[in-house]
Write a sequence for this structure.
């Protein structure tokens, strides 16, 4: 069956993205999309950019890089734009990590990290999280090949403080990738520290905080030397990763922080409502700084996952060691979460 | 300066895309963009798709795959969609070619092929084109690791017949990638042959034929076994490479063949006008089946390139062995090409 596959293709264990079920009136709480639509400015920017579709996108992506830089108090030379942050992370692995030099990461974190490592023949040194799913900070030191750290972590939602992350950056003489996919929902950011540390790469996406999962815009913030490595790798793979509409829409989104701040504050409030309601019904809920919560219901999680799905509510359950007792639930609108909580009550009451 | 770069990043020789000069009233004939805008249906499809930007794109890309399949008389299982055809080609190298097994290609062809080979540690076996820049067909046999062939070739514009390409597919027991980036301008296609040969992968882009360079949509047509290898590699790199707007716009473009056929016939006529006019002033013009021509002016090409640029006409000149005497000129509108020809006359008359 695998005739003509490369040895590499045959050896891979690809990442599995959350499902996109075709169910009517679905309450979709499984892929951490923002509960609210993008800024109206995004749509007008996309419409205006349509006039240029015949031509190749701008290689330098000036407007997008400037908007990302401005939002973080950085310069455009600090920004590398990408087709979503997964592409950015993949290119970071290729640009900064070497086969034979182990890269430090956790046992419970974004499950794409070991997939990229395998794709590029990079060894991972996997630290177990503490029993309470916090990062064992005292062990995050002296990595030989690199560090990759999601903050807040996924799927736990637990965040380190900026000071704790800074300490990790200082204690490792190799590139430390801080994956801030879930910035904007209460966690402290280390974005501005890229001016201070030449081994820090902060990766972000507009998918969650800026309601643009469908547009595919991510970026890396780092010092210009690391950005040059990313450009060398990008221009050896695909010179035009971010299309004209994505550049325009992404820039417009980044320029409308007030709109997103208001939405994301609503999401934080809805998250606290949801966490409190789950705790009240006997669930353990990890402290989240993301737009999802990770909770252990008082009955088997797989069973709850299936029963919710029957009612048209889709959450994510990972059939994996240490976390198979938990559900990851994206924070939707208050109406959606009231439905979810209502259904949870019915399930737990039998 | 390269502290913290991976050995891989340090070793690369990235591809150089055509420049995008910021000159007013520019006549841009350097990156082979289509002379005409996309179908109006593309814009309405993009507008409608905006309603879904909050959510992740459809993983299966059903509508885009179906439109691409229909245009080629294939099934959706024969189609792999990508963020432009450069990404598709990069993933093909990773999915089908192995280090240590040389991949056959030409000395004068798309200059990104050796860049991908270097990125993925693949050796290229480079055949020199004949003196007239045609492919040495009798030598296109028995490749060990694979074949990559642009048809029509770039930057020459010369096309093989479908029968000649089929012979190459038959004579090599490894994957033959046929890069049809410039389909739609007169060359014969082997798209439908993917039903017949399990080692044929046809790569296409909507950038040229469908006026969508800014949207980033490409695809691979192949048998489902090869498509599975591409999916395994893709899902180890970036699960969502084609955004919601690109999926919708690309599908709408592929569904409006009549619109593009009419435009592309105009481009073919303009190409013949341009070629005849250049020949009349003593240039050698290779026979083109693409939306560009490759021509050797009777004076040094670099000089002509610079003089054209001073007049706001940008074409492409490659400072490379065998082809540094030539210019690659994209076919713009008839008005643009009349300007170009007028300027060429002035340059050649001193």
């Amino acid at each position: 069956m695998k005739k003509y596959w490369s040895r590499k293709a045959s050896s891979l264990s690809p990442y599995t993205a959350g499902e996109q079920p075709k169910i009517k009136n679905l309450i979709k709480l499984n892929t951490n999309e923002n509960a609210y639509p993008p800024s109206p400015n995004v749509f007008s920017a996309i419409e205006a950019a349509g006039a240029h579709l015949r031509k190749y996108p701008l290689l330098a992506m000036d407007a997008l890089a400037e908007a990302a830089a401005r939002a973080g108090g950085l310069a455009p030379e600090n920004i590398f734009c990408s087709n979503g942050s997964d592409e950015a992370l993949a290119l970071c692995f290729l640009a900064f990590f070497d086969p034979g030099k182990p890269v430090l990461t956790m046992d419970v974190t974004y499950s794409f990290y070991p997939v990229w490592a395998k794709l590029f023949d990079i060894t991972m040194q996997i630290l177990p999280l503490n029993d309470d799913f916090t990062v064992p900070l005292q062990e995050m030191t002296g990595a030989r090949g690199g560090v990759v750290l999601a903050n807040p972590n996924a799927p736990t939602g637990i965040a380190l403080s900026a000071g704790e992350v800074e300490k990790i950056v200082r204690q490792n003489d190799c590139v430390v990738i801080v994956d801030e996919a879930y910035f904007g929902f209460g966690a402290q950011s280390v974005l501005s520290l890229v001016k201070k540390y030449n081994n820090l790469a902060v990766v972000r996406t507009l998918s969650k905080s800026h309601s643009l999962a469908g547009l595919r815009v991510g970026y890396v913030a780092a010092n210009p030397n690391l950005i040059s490595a990313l450009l060398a790798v990008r221009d050896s793979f695909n010179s035009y990763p971010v299309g004209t509409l994505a550049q325009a829409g992404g820039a417009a989104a980044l320029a409308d922080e007030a709109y997103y701040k208001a939405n994301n504050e609503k999401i934080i409030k809805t998250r606290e409502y949801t966490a409190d309601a789950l705790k009240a019904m006997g669930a353990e809920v990890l402290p989240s700084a993301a737009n999802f919560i990770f909770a252990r219901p008082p009955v088997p999680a797989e069973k709850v996952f299936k029963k919710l799905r029957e009612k048209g509510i889709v959450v994510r359950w990972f059939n994996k060691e240490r976390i198979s007792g938990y559900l990851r639930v994206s924070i939707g609108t208050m109406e959606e979460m009231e439905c979810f909580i209502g259904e949870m009550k019915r399930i737990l009451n039998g």
The domain at 7-37+260-349 of chain A is CATH 3.90.1150.10 (Aspartate Aminotransferase, domain 1).
